[in-house]
Amino acid sequence: MNKNEARRKAKLRPKLLVSFSGGKTSAYMSKLIKEKMSDSHELLFVFANTGQERKETLNFVRDCDEFFNLDLVWVEASVNPESGEGTSFKVTNYENASLDGSPFEEVIKKYGISNKAYPHCTRELKAVPIRKYALSRGWKDYQTAIGIRADEPNRIGSDPKFIYPMHDWMIDKIDVNNFWERMPFNLNLLEHQGNCSWCWKKSSKKHFMLIKESPEIYDFPERMEEKYGLAGHNIDGTKRVFFLGNKSTKALKEEYQLIGGSSRQRTIFEDENSGCSESCEAFA
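^ that's the sequence the OP posted. Answer follows.
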């Protein structure tokens, strides 16, 4: 096959954007897609850093990129403060990725505190920058692979623009954990920690565990509530707060001081469900 023929065939391959969230499932998915679909698809692996990912997550993303040869692109949100102008992206890397929450703060400054009623953080910090980056590459007609497993059918959508290889390949959480146990590196986080260090979707039980372990990670959301509680478009004019039950960071800390570490806390929140899994999928 000559070079022109090879280029022509490459152009005919369907494009697949792989959304790498930084979690173990999407990492395993990325590895399998690289192996199984490189010949049939034009692949683009993208990770969106919010500035509030845990350092362990960034280390894991770097290691996966190097070990699986993903040619991973790191992006962050670039917010235009002007009304009517949407979020864009900037390309970064492991060495220069934001660690202080700067992209997150810029989103909050314009759109306000994100919470259950205003869940725009994933959209503006992950989905939009990833889409805008793909567009900058000339990608208009493509599908996006999302790391949702066979044991998570309730998270599967019907939009044909998205595919769920792990679900289709019948790979569940046990399979994912077994794979990483055999690997020379892993995501060194406990399940309650998750990639986003203080995600507002976490249950109170998880927050209490984190406040006990790493109280400093709540400095950022507390500062954001103090500075930008009235930012964005609040229907009733009151200050927004992050956490479930309309709790502020300060209220969450006070509740932990009241019952944290006690046997009562362990039973009250034992069965509390959480919308926060190991990672926050950009398009889930």
